[in-house]
Amino acid sequence: MDDDAADIDPAADRTELEVDIARDVRALTAISEQIGHVFARSNDLRPNDFRALMHVATADAEGSPVSAGQLSKVMGVSAPAVTYLVERMIESGHLDRVSDPADRRRVNLTYTDQGMAVAAGFFGPLGSRTRAALSDLPDTDLAAAHRVLVSVTTALREFYAEFPASGHAAE
């Protein structure tokens, strides 16, 4: 056995990897926020408008559409503020209200075709760059990265839910 290999502390390596991932998530969050601000400015949107669009897109992608009431909670803003925001987003052509097929009394928010086209026009080149950046990585690495991101997202959501102000804490 190589003497250098015997000196490696697996716990230290694991801690270092976890610190690296936390740093990477912060960097990803920071640059994502910067790109979001550019998108908002280039489309005459306010920062909260973009945040709302991200929440709607995420909820749609996860198969759990969001209502205006839920949007108010996840954004931490009042119902009247969300109503005003949603009205602006509908008027600008980004969002629309649709009846929930499972419960017609419930109204969800969804992207319009125009909103999707605007987003695709802006974020399409980012998607191309991301695919190019990932193209040389094996599928096993991508699957592992996906598991890591899902785990980190779950931990963040659980942490958020513990705060009474989040509206999700257990009583």
From TrEMBL:
<protein>
    <submittedName>
        <fullName>MarR family transcriptional regulator</fullName>
    </submittedName>
</protein>
<dbReference type="Pfam" id="PF12802">
    <property type="entry name" value="MarR_2"/>
</dbReference>
<feature type="domain" description="HTH marR-type">
    <location>
        <begin position="14"/>
        <end position="154"/>
    </location>
</feature>
<dbReference type="GO" id="GO:0003700">
    <property type="term" value="F:DNA-binding transcription factor activity"/>
</dbReference>
<keyword id="KW-0238">DNA-binding</keyword>
<dbReference type="GO" id="GO:0003677">
    <property type="term" value="F:DNA binding"/>
</dbReference>
<dbReference type="InterPro" id="IPR023187">
    <property type="entry name" value="Tscrpt_reg_MarR-type_CS"/>
</dbReference>
<dbReference type="InterPro" id="IPR000835">
    <property type="entry name" value="HTH_MarR-typ"/>
</dbReference>
<keyword id="KW-0805">Transcription regulation</keyword>
<keyword id="KW-0804">Transcription</keyword>
<dbReference type="InterPro" id="IPR039422">
    <property type="entry name" value="MarR/SlyA-like"/>
</dbReference>
<dbReference type="GO" id="GO:0006950">
    <property type="term" value="P:response to stress"/>
</dbReference>
<dbReference type="InterPro" id="IPR036388">
    <property type="entry name" value="WH-like_DNA-bd_sf"/>
</dbReference>
<dbReference type="InterPro" id="IPR036390">
    <property type="entry name" value="WH_DNA-bd_sf"/>
</dbReference>
